[in-house]
Design a protein that fits this description.
The complex is a heterodimer of chains A (151) and B (360). Chain A has 151 residues and is of the alpha+beta class. Chain A is built from 4 helices and 4 strands, in the order ααβββααβ. In chain A, strands 1-2-3 form a 3-stranded antiparallel beta sheet. Chain B folds into 2 domains: 74 residues, no CATH class; 195 residues, no CATH class. In chain B, helix 7 packs antiparallel against helix 9 and helix 8 crosses helix 9. The chains are: A alpha+beta (151), B alpha+beta (360). Strand 2 of chain A pairs parallel with strand 1 of chain B. Chain A: This is Alpha-D-ribose 1-methylphosphonate 5-triphosphate synthase subunit PhnG. Chain A: Keywords: Transferase.
């Protein structure tokens, strides 16, 4: 896999990780792949999330998060699903989509699932960011008298 | 809290559990709570359970709250117990809070910030009056939307002033080592800052709040400023072994607090600002701020400050902040201690008898 293919795959995996189960089910219903073998059936585990002191300093273990993963072979392609949370079916569907996106029906699935999902996810992010922007504020503080205790 | 040396009572215990289930359900004429309702409408309780359970999973935290009838500490215990059944697939690169999708971001030290002061959803400006409209179901007005979204990348406030040389820099130690992990190694002393921050991130909010307050009231020499508080969503990345490159698998909500305290500078050092850091799962400013104040108090040795107060004593803070452990040890006193007590009673009887004999 060259760099460009790797980046394209990372992009669609990020979209799939946030895609609703129903959207993936619907998009896959018209896709034919080769026979599917589950190399790694859906399993739930954890990933340790880290932070950095001060945002940029020493690493520390913040706490774990649940992750569900699945790996399949669909025809010639290997598909991988990694979803934050406790979602076996979503991880399986994600792996099937990932495999299909690398195969002959990739372009069609891209147009039917990834492109509209990406747009919907961007719109949702934009909506939250505009709600936050509506709460932007300019505070004015009163000039203090000389000798007043600062608070 | 495993308890083995008691036999019998099976039926009574089963019936006790049955009573819990019945009380949890309440009046069958009232609709049962769904996990989605708890996750969405009791989100701050869910956040607290995830933080203290040290496991990010809003659905499971909501389930734990439902099972524990809203008892946050019991729910956190349920999550801690559940996580021991799971395998850890991978560690993720550290979360980058500069990439946060900002829901709220304020600074008490700089009025004019690149990106602005964003109040977001906050109780700070409410009058704390009960809203009786919420007694009934009904349509709720949506929040306002601005024409332009908040900036996608908002610099962290302490980074903005770090360049002037007044702010203590936040740099990783040589080699950027992997942090300790209390889920794998027991707590040891002296604890590194990494261990302290992990302990505080999953510590009991009430305990941390009280300790943080103590540093402000004179039990610690802290006069801090809230340099920045931000809350929002941060992407989680992993490098799956089957891929070998970084992928983004979703996002978590976190709250970050950077507290700033000036020091005069010991032994020829320049006077400057030092920092305390808080980062917690979910939207919880009370906890993130408390964590930052205590982190700073626990750094006393680094700044040659005398350690005189509870919040500066890392053994005191770290050993007693974990509510799963504290609760287990306090509550184990409820379990039968018949033999111990009878032995002690016998000893007291003998001592009294000896005393009486001696005085006769």
């Amino acid at each position: 896999m060259d760099q460009e293919e790797m980046m394209a795959r990372a992009d669609w995996l990020a979209v799939l990780a946030r895609a609703p189960q129903a959207a993936m089910e619907a998009a896959l219903s018209g896709v034919t792949t080769g026979p599917v073998v589950w190399i790694r059936p859906a399993g739930i585990g954890m990933v340790m999330l880290e932070g950095r002191a001060g945002g940029t300093g020493q690493r520390f273990s913040l706490g774990q998060a649940t992750v569900t993963r699945a790996t399949c072979r669909a025809g010639e392609q290997i598909g991988v699903g990694y979803v934050l949370g406790h979602f076996p079916r979503r991880a399986e569907l994600m792996a099937l989509c990932d495999a299909a996106l690398q195969g002959p029906s990739g372009a069609a699935l891209m147009a039917r699932l990834i492109t509209p999902q990406q747009a919907a996810q961007r719109a949702a992010r934009d909506d939250r960011a505009r709600a936050a922007a509506a709460t932007k504020v300019e505070f004015f503080t009163m000039a203090r008298h000389a000798g007043a205790r600062s608070t | 809290m495993a308890y083995v040396p008691v036999k019998g009572g099976e039926e009574a215990i089963l019936n006790s559990l049955g009573m819990v289930a019945e009380e949890r359900r309440g009046d069958p004429a009232t609709p049962e709570l769904t996990i989605a309702q708890i996750r969405q409408q009791q989100a701050r309780a869910v956040d607290r359970v995830m933080a203290e359970g040290s496991l990010y999973d809003p659905d499971l935290a909501a389930l734990a709250l439902k099972q524990a009838q809203g008892d946050a500490t019991e729910a956190a215990f349920l999550l801690r117990a559940y996580r021991t059944t799971l395998e850890q697939f991978a560690t993720a690169p550290p979360l980058d809070t500069a990439r946060m999708a900002i829901r709220r971001r304020i600074s008490a030290t700089y009025k004019d910030l690149p990106g602005g002061q964003v109040l977001g959803p906050s109780y700070d400006y409410t009058h704390r009056m009960l809203d009786f409209d919420l007694m009934q179901d009904g349509p709720r007005a949506p929040a306002a939307r601005a024409g332009t979204p908040v900036d996608a990348h908002m610099p962290r406030v302490p980074d903005l002033v770090a360049n002037e040389g007044f702010m203590e820099p936040a740099l990783p130690p040589e080699g950027d080592p992997a942090p300790g992990d209390l889920t794998r190694q027991p707590l040891g002393f002296p604890a590194g800052r990494d261990t302290r921050l992990q302990n505080l991130a999953r510590g009991d909010e009430g305990f941390l709040l009280g300790l943080a307050y103590s540093t402000q009231r004179g039990f610690g020499s802290n006069h801090p400023y809230a340099g920045e508080i931000r809350a929002g969503e941060v992407p989680v990345e992993v490098v799956p072994e089957e891929l070998g490159f970084v992928i983004d698998i979703g996002e978590v909500t976190v709250t970050e607090s950077q507290m700033i305290t000036s020091i005069k500078g010991a032994s020829g050092e320049n006077p400057r600002f030092t920092r305390g850091y808080g980062l917690v799962f979910g939207h919880s400013e009370r906890k993130a701020m408390s964590m930052a104040l205590i982190d700073r108090a626990l750094r006393a040795d680094e700044f040659a400050e005398p350690r005189k107060y509870p919040a500066q004593d890392e053994e005191f803070v770290l050993y007693h902040s974990d509510n799963v452990e504290s609760s287990g040890f306090v509550q184990h006193l409820k379990l039968p201690h018949y033999v111990d007590f009878q032995a002690e009673l016998k000893m007291l009887r003998e001592m009294r008898a000896e005393r009486q004999e001696a005085s006769q």
